[in-house]
Amino acid sequence: MVVGGAVYGIVAGGAGEVALGVDDVEGAWIAEDGGDPRLVIRADGSAELMPEAQVEACAWVPAGGGRAAATWAFGDTDDPRVVHVELRHPETAERCFFDLDVEDSGERATVYGERVPAAFDTYVRGAAGS
Questions:
Q1: Is 130 a member of any domain?
Q2: Which of 69, 109, 116, 130 is deepest in the core (most CB within 10 A)?
Q3: What residues make up the domain containing 91?
């Protein structure tokens, strides 16, 4: 049973949190208060950030008012419920990072930006591929 407990500790993270899978994060993430999708996460590691989310997370004006391509990766064992998102401004190549801290349900997440010290938004997940 010691081996089983050790394996659970590795899979669940330090505080009993179960690590995220692609099914837990893929899809369109919408601001909890409604509106259009803000972030679309794809299974292949790519993502798109909509203009209003770029302003919130990165404090920059979107190039041409459009979507920004991004990449994402799962957090490490210390952050098993976190998705790290990185994007570059298409005109200036300035980098921006933010985290999506996903609740156990996989349907709700808090977004934290590198330029915004506190949680600035809560997203809920729509259908995959939205």
A1: no
A2: 109
A3: 21-125
CA distances from 57 to 63, 95, 104 (A): 15, 11, 23
First-last CA distance in the chain? 43
Residue 4 lies in a domain: no
Backbone phi, then psi, for 4, in 5-degree steps?
-60, -40
What separation in angstroms does the CA of 93 have from each of 25, 55, 56, 96, 102? 26, 16, 18, 9, 28
> Do 20 and 49 form a contact (C-beta atoms < 8 A)?
no
Give the number of residues written for the chain: 130
pLDDT digits (tens, 9 = 90+) for 66-99: 888 899 999 988 889 999 999 888 788 888 888 9
* More reliable by pLDDT, 2 or 72: 72
Residues 43, 33: Cα–Cα separation, whole Å: 25
Among 112, 115, 105, 116, residue whose Cα is nearest residue 39: 112
